[in-house]
Amino acid sequence: MASARCPVARHCFAQQGVRPAGLMRRLGGLVYDTFLVMALLIVLGFVGVAANGGEANQSPLFRSLLLVAVFAFFAYFWSRSGMTLGMQAWRLRLQTPEGCAPTLPQCLLRFLVAGLSLGCGGLGYLWQLWDSEHRSWHDIASGTRVVVVPRPSRE
């Protein structure tokens, strides 16, 4: 569904009441998603061991496939609804400044820079404490932002 705000056919979201997400809320969502990703990797590990005749599969190809699977997990949710399961639990949404779900290239760039952010001792995540718009390195690099979704109104 294309709109005036989003020139391509992507999911766009209402912007009323959204505000930038704080560090603790974002880390809460990350912890939830970490458990889901660990479960995914365990299942894929079992498949890798079975495919390797019962031996641990330590090949670079298998490790690369695990990395692609982790990216696919995040990209699927981010590009469709802007929310992983952990983000839903913490009422977080990833979106462009226009309020649309990110594109696949934005998801890839975000995923890669988020890994760099973690690799630098979390400095890329802490960056939002000094950024006027509360953006982390991966928000800035991918042109996205994480917002808090307002609670549904009770009528």
From TrEMBL:
Membrane spanning residue stretches: 29-49, 61-78, 107-127
Broad class of where this protein is predominantly found: membrane
Pfam families: RDD
UniProt KW keywords: Cell membrane, Membrane, Transmembrane, Transmembrane helix
Membrane topology: Multi-pass membrane protein
Signal peptide positions (record): none
Annotated protein name in UniProt: RDD family protein
Source organism (scientific name): Cobetia marina (Deleya marina)
